[in-house]
Specification:
Elements lengths: L6 E4 L4 H12 L4 E3 L10 H11 L3 E4 L12 H25 L2 E7 L31 H16 L3 E6 L2 E2 L12 H11 L3 E4 L3 E2 L2 E2 H13 L5 E4 L7 E2 H12 L5 E4 L27 H11 L7
Parallel strand pairs: 1-2, 1-3, 3-4, 4-5, 5-10, 6-9, 7-12
Antiparallel strand pairs: 8-11
Helix pairs in contact: 1-6, 2-3, 3-4, 5-7, 7-8
Bound molecules: NADP nicotinamide-adenine-dinucleotide phosphate.
């Protein structure tokens, strides 16, 4: 199925937003790309005006406040709440009002990570299906959960898509969040030994693969509702993810496995938030995503 009419994208200079823009445009789709300067999603009046004028057939919300530790600060929490909860409320309301489909991105962190203990070794096959009940345990996750609730309550034709630990080319937004892959490649050069958390499981996902899967939601099309879209292969810890990154990048810096409690971080982190995908377009494996990304980078093992 081809997509008719323009598509309104928010958060277009973010890491996922830029991949959506690139991959969907290459597929011949007309995208109206906006970032905060063009469309502040926290302002209902602006959102309503732009959506009313442009009449997009689809609105894709890739805008977010993603600083997990920052959101614990009361002042920054208010910003997170505005972007992650009020923003999607405004977009869902206007999408419904003007008859657009709505794709909203959420996170594995809406789950507590404690109700599904992992007892298997490297790969977590136990986790959260699309029907599981969210129970956020930190401030950032609460704001994302409130955004999810708003989208569900407004109703209409929506896809609520949870993903996890995104990595890929960095967006051009000035506040863009460095991915774990970028972080590892940087600190491996700076430190003689890395201590990596080995009791927090998730499903790292390559942004170009996620952008492609999001497009498939519309073109197949899939029924509206909640989707878990992550690279295939099950959940793994930061420690095991780092091992994969270093093996592919030819990095030999030693790494040590530690519990999350070793680091004092303002936000509490969930244990196992492996997302189980039972519906929707299948993404390639994490190994494939990581390999594609590492090969894009200029010789990661050199100084
Ligand atoms: N990153 C992860 O590991 C991860 C994991 C799971 C789920 N997700 C979800 O995936 C989605 C994309 O994440 P990402 O990592 O690509 O995000 P990102 O790189 O941090 O980009 C977020 C974008 O949102 C924009 N933005 C912030 N406030 C805004 C506002 N008031 N109005 C309009 N735009 C605003 C930013 O614009 P400026 O350029 O103006 O700052 C930036 O371009 C988000 O929903 C996120 O919660 C991410």
């Amino acid at each position: 199925m081809s997509l008719e009419g323009p598509i309104l994208l928010t958060g277009a200079r973010g890491s996922l937003g830029e991949q959506i823009q690139k991959i969907w445009s290459a597929a011949g789709i007309k995208i109206i790309a906006t970032d905060r300067a063009e469309l502040d999603i926290t302002n209902l009046e602006l959102v309503d005006k732009l959506v009313g004028e442009l009449k997009p057939t689809v609105i894709v919300n890739a805008a977010a406040y993603n600083n997990v530790d920052g959101a614990e600060d009361p002042a920054l929490y208010q910003i997170a709440l505005a972007v992650n909860a009020t923003g999607p409320t405004n977009l869902a309301l206007t999408a419904k009002k003007y008859g657009a489909k709505f794709i909203h991105l959420s996170t594995d962190y809406v789950f507590s990570g404690v109700s599904n203990p992992v007892t298997v070794g490297e790969i977590a096959t136990i986790g959260y299906k699309e029907t599981a009940n969210p129970h956020p345990i930190n401030a950032y996750a609460r704001t994302k959960f409130l955004g999810e609730e708003a989208v569900r309550e407004v109703g209409g034709e929506y896809y609520l898509v949870r993903s996890s630990r995104l990595f890929g080319p960095l967006g051009s937004s000035p506040d863009v969040k460095e991915s774990f892959v970028h972080l590892m490649l940087r600190v491996a050069r700076e430190r003689p030994l890395l201590k990596l958390v080995n009791d927090e499981w998730g499903c790292p996902t390559y942004t170009p693969h996620l952008a492609t899967a999001l497009l498939s939601l519309l073109t197949k099309p899939y029924p509206f509702g909640i989707y878990h879209l992550v690279n295939a292969g099950g959940g793994l810890t930061w420690y095991d993810f780092a091992k994969k990154i270093f093996a592919l990048a030819g990095i030999t810096t030693p790494i040590e496995s530690v519990p999350g409690t070793v680091y004092s971080r303002p936000a509490r982190r969930p244990g196992n938030v492996t997302l189980i995908q039972t519906r929707g377009p299948k993404l390639p494996s994490l190994d494939q995503g990581l390999s594609e990304f590492i090969h894009l980078l200029p010789n990661p093992s050199s100084d």
